[in-house]
Fold this sequence. Notes:
5 strands; five-stranded parallel beta sheet; alpha/beta; disordered C terminus; Rossmann fold; 2 domains
Amino acid sequence: xxxxxTRRKLRELNLEEMIQxxxxxxxxxxxxxxxxxxxFESIVDYVHQEKYNKKxxxxxxxxxxxxxxxxxxxIYYEQRNINRSQFQELSTCQFIEHNMNVIFAGFTGSGKTxxxxxxxxxxxxxxxxxxxxRLPDLLVERDEASxxxxxxxxxxxxxxxxxxxxxxxWLLDNLNEEEIHFxxxxxxxxxxxxxxxxxxxxxxxxxxxxxxxxxHADAMMDRIVHNAVWFDTEDxxxxxxxxxxx
Length: 246
């Protein structure tokens, strides 16, 4: 039985999980016949798993996915232009190691956000710092940051440092010159350093004009598209399909 002083020290070491398992072992008759090494191994395994679970849950919570219950095992492939083997390969998150981008393009309700959130959760399970945000919300943050000294550079650094950034509703609204410049700076900082997912209703041919049609648009297209995996989720409304199935 652990004394109070030992419990205090373990808590100071952030090892509450070890206390819990040792207390459980005291109540289990079969542990009395285990060697010290066997009991210690089970304690280490338990603490490691609990720490991992807490880390993953924290990453998922801080990512703020729009669809937190999205899962790669629930992706619907039938009658959609999504290559199953290619998508499942993406779920290993090796594309993040290679700083590749992923683009989901299709109509409203076609499952773009679900696919992105499902892959984002897989990244969290691997300990990868991930963030989901709608582009309109990001631009609101930019407007608020512009009122604070050095606010915009700090905001750029914040979003540049995520290993995986999911930008939903990409190019949904028309952009002014300041917003285009901000997106360019973010794209430049993330280029060849991290991965970004884009969920958009617009096809590649429309991007250049919606990004302003100038040199910034040229640069962003080069940095985003040339090293990207593109999925066309088309016009099939997955929400309507699932409602009919249920």
